Amino acid sequence: MQNKTVLITGGSSGIGLGIAHSFAGRGYQVIINGLENNGAEIARSLAEKYGVRTHFIYADISNFSTVENMCNEALQHFGQVEILVNNAGIQHVSAIEHFPIDKWNAIININLNAAFYTTRCLWEQMKNTAWGRVINIASAHGLVASEYKSAYVAAKHGILGLTKALALEGAPYNITANAICPGYVKTPLVEKQIADQAKAHGIAESQVVSDIMLVKQPVKEFVSVEAIGSLAVYLASNEAALINGAALPIDGAWTAQ
Ligand code: NAD
């Protein structure tokens, strides 16, 4: 059994929840954060399924003081948070000339600034014990762009820059920082995009998937949350100590082009 604790932002839905299952299944203590009303119930069911300690923290991480409170609560409950997974994220699709200012700001806040806030709050305790892992869930859109996703692409490219800076600062303290860059994963975030695009283009949802969504991905399959969870667990292991500052795609060769 592991005795390490992982904090996963956006851990009560989609990819974050998949990552939570992967860590809990390997015996880690898991703290999930998110805006889901049933987050506490989700945390309880993880604890029952895997026999590990879990905790849910409802917190809007687009605000620094809220993040500070969240991290203090995590440390009060578990003493130490060795692994931080910055996963929470949102999307908005719009042509640049109509892109709503509030959506731009929200995406930059949640998808980029929040990762800085959480890391800033948990860094010192990682440094003090000379062991830590920061795992940022970026995207294929951290490596390449798509039209109409300017804020998302900017935030995801930004988080790869943050990852590299953390890798350099963490290196003397046995702290690694890496980014996982998934292609499309069928989660609530993507299901909403499928429905929106079908409406916008007046086509069936299945056609959105084949003709729009997976058109850039040579392997015509959604990435599974289990695959992302397994990679995150590997990055948290001692074997991965020298993988530092990397951006690792799981994208069916999308960014190989
Ligand atoms: P999702 O909508 O299923 O989950 C997002 C989670 O983030 C939820 O738990 C939600 O409550 C939380 N969240 C949103 N705003 C928040 C806020 N202000 N404060 C705290 N929590 C907040 O989405 P997902 O598809 O699982 O996405 C997770 C991450 O993976 C995102 O960073 C996303 O950009 C990235 N990603 C997703 C895909 C995909 O195809 N689904 C592909 C590549 C990268």
Order of helices and strands: EHEHEHEHEHEHHHE
Extended strand count: 7
Q: Number of folding domains?
A: 2
- Calculate Rg over CA atoms: 18 Å
Low-confidence stretches: none
User: Can you summarize the main beta sheet?
Assistant: 7 strands, parallel
* Terminal Cα span: 41 Å
What value does the average pLDDT take?
97
- The CATH H-level homologous superfamily of the largest domain: NAD(P)-binding Rossmann-like Domain
- How many helical elements? 8
SSE class = alpha/beta
Strand content: 5-15%
Which shape, going by the Cα principal axes? globular
CATH class of the largest domain: Alpha Beta
Strand order of the largest sheet: 3-2-1-4-5-6-7
CATH architecture of the largest domain: 3-Layer(aba) Sandwich
Q: Return the CATH topology of the largest domain.
A: Rossmann fold
**Helix coverage percent:** 40-55%
Descriptive account of the structure:
The chain is of the alpha/beta class. It has two domains: 5-184 and 224-252, NAD(P)-binding Rossmann-like Domain (Rossmann fold, 3-Layer(aba) Sandwich); 186-222, no CATH class. It is 48% helix and 14% strand. It has helices spanning 14-25, 39-50, 64-78, 101-129, 150-170, 188-201, 205-213, 225-236, and strands at residues 5-8, 29-34, 54-58, 83-86, 132-137, 175-182, 247-250. Strands 3-2-1-4-5-6-7 form a seven-stranded parallel beta sheet, sandwiched between helices. Helix 2 links the parallel strand 2 and strand 3 (54-58). Helix 4 packs parallel to helix 5 (150-170) and helix 6 (188-201) crosses helix 7 (205-213). 43% of the residues are buried. The model has no long low-confidence stretch (mean pLDDT 97). The site of nicotinamide-adenine-dinucleotide has 29 residues, from helix 1, strand 2, helix 4 and helix 6.
